[in-house]
Amino acid sequence: ATQLGVALYNAHIRAQLELVQDIGLQLVTIVRTEELFPWIVRQIRDCLHHDSCAILRVEGDSLVLEASTGGFARDLVGMRIPFGQGITGRCAIEKRVINVGDIRSDPGYITSGVECARSEIAAPILFEGELHGVLTIESSSPDAFDDDDVRLLSPLSAQVAVGVHQAQMFADAERMAVTDALTGLYNYRYFHERLHSEMARSARYGHPLSLVMIDLDQFKLVNDRYGHLKGDDVLREVARMVKRNTRCYDESVTVKHTDIDIAS
Question: Crossing angle, helix 2-27 and helix 147-177, to 10 degrees?
Fold first, then answer.
């Protein structure tokens, strides 16, 4: 029985190490967060066989639930948890693995929608000391997570952090490629791409399409009298005013990163 116990333990540890290795190898091929987060939570749940797994991303001073699997309710995607609240919020503040053997004894526990959840473990996703998010796993068994799980989550969350950082760099590069550096508005190239696609969409669905052009009267006088740096300030302020008055979709889960109005 002892020999069998050792063999099973070794198999469990090997499975954990293989998970860390597999995630590390695959992360370099996934550069979009909308693909990365769901893939990570599925891999963790399939390998570790716990009831549910979720990833929350840092946004300001809150965590936003980005992807989940298992018993987590789907309508919780997009839910915000302020730093310091619940197990994941405490994990974000303290930047360490938090293991709660019985969530019923934790007064700050925020329900996840997982039926019969009894224990939870949360690990910070840190890249070069900066918090990018929190990885959390729940189980219907009390005291489901031991010291081995705590030790596993450190290299695992480090691998996830590399992937998240890489995905953010890719998103920044994509945004810079279509954004004007001075004003932050979309550039000439993106304007033409979207104009063609919006014209096609308008024709297909029979919806009206408006094109508004703004000209700054006497702008040359600003540059001549106050200098080009002050002229740049004027352009930036006009761009901010335009952006404040453009409409965006509120349904972030249904339509992500899409604008109704395109200011260029």
Answer: 10
Residue 257 has pLDDT above 50, yes or no: no
- Dist. CA 208–CA 193, nearest whole Å: 18
Q: What is the pLDDT of residues 2-15, one digit of tens each?
A: 888 777 766 766 76
Distance CA 86, CA 109 (A): 5
Burial of 196 (0-12, 13-18, 19+ CB in 10 A): exposed
pLDDT: which is higher, 44 or 80: 80
Spell out the SS3 assignment of 42-87: HHHHHHHCCCEEEEEEEECCEEEEEEEEECCCHHHCCCEEECCCHH
* pLDDT of residue 32 exceeding 90: no
Answer yes or no: are the C-beta atoms of 88 and 108 closer than 8 Å: no
CA torsion angle 101 104 110 112 (round to 10): 80
Work out the mean pLDDT of the chain and round it to a whole number. Answer: 82
| CA-wise closest residue to 244 among 171, 185, 191, 172 | 185
3-state secondary structure of 164: helix
